[in-house]
Hints:
With 308 residues, the chain is an alpha/beta fold.
Amino acid sequence: MIDKLVEEIRKKQAPIVVGLDPQPEFIPPQITEEAFGQYGETLEGAAAAFFAFNKGIVDAVADLVPAVKPQSAMYEQFGVPGVQAYKDTIDYCKKKGLIVIGDVKRGDIGSTSAAYARAHLGTVRVGSKTYAPFDEDFCTVNPYLGSDGIRPFTDVCRECGKGIFVLVKTSNPSSGELQDRLAGEQALYEIVGQMVDSWGADLTGSSGWSAVGAVVGATYPETGKILRKMMPKNYILVPGYGAQGGKGRDLVHFFDKDGLGAIVNSSRGIIAAWQKAPYAGFGADGYAEAARKAVTDMKQDIAEALNG
C-alpha cells in the first residue's frame, strides 16, 4: 500500500491528506436539517449528517488528493450509528479511489493489539467466511507500550499489504512533556524514530519506502529535520498544518530531495473552510467548493515552499 500512496502522490502532485474529522458545528444547516428530518435529533441523525457532509467533501476533492484521514473518535462519540458512519465513510472514499488512513491511535499488547490490527487492517473469520471489518489502508498506532504493541500490526501489514503510521513527535503543545524527555543523550522521540526505522526495515516496497511510517507534527519543523535523517525510508504523516499553525515553509525538512517522504494533513482548514474568512463567500451551500479551494491553496503553499 505504501507504493500505491507514493504513486498517487506523484500522480496528483499533492502530498496532502484531508482529515475527515466532522463535528456538528462544521456541518452546514441544510445537511443537518435534512438528516434530522429523516431520523430526528438522534444519534442516527447525527451520523447521517456526518456521512452526507463527508460525501460532499470527498466528491469535491477526490481528484486533487491521494488520501483521506477520518479520525475515529469523532464518529465513536455518537455510538454505534457514529461507528457505522465511520465505516460508510471509509467504503465511500475507497470507491472514489482514495487511500484511507484510519486515525485510530491504537496501542496495546499481545492478543489485544492483534485484535486491533485485524479490525482495522486485516481480516477476521466468521465460521467459513472471512471479512475485513473496517478495511483502512493505513492506521495510526501508539508505540508507547513498546514492540509488543507494534509487532501485531507489522505482521498484519506484511500479510495484507497495509501500512501504519507510528506516533513519534505529535503536534500538540504538551507533547514535549514526555516526547522531549532525555533518555541518556537522546530525546525520547529520537529513540522512537530509530525504532520506527527498524520496525519497517523488512517492509520496504518497490518504491523504496517502508510500510511503517511516522507521525511528526508540522509545528516542530526542526524536529522534522532531525527525524527525516533518522528515518530515511519511512514516510512521515504531518499533522498540524493550518488550524494548528503549521505553514508550507515549516514543512521543507520533512521531505527528501525529490519532494517525497511526507504527506501533510489538514482537517478543519479544509472541511470547515466555508466558515473561514478567506472562503466565506462560498456560503453554507458551497461548503464543498470552499473545501476544494482550500485544498488548491494548500497544494500551492506546499509546492512553493518545496520549490523555493
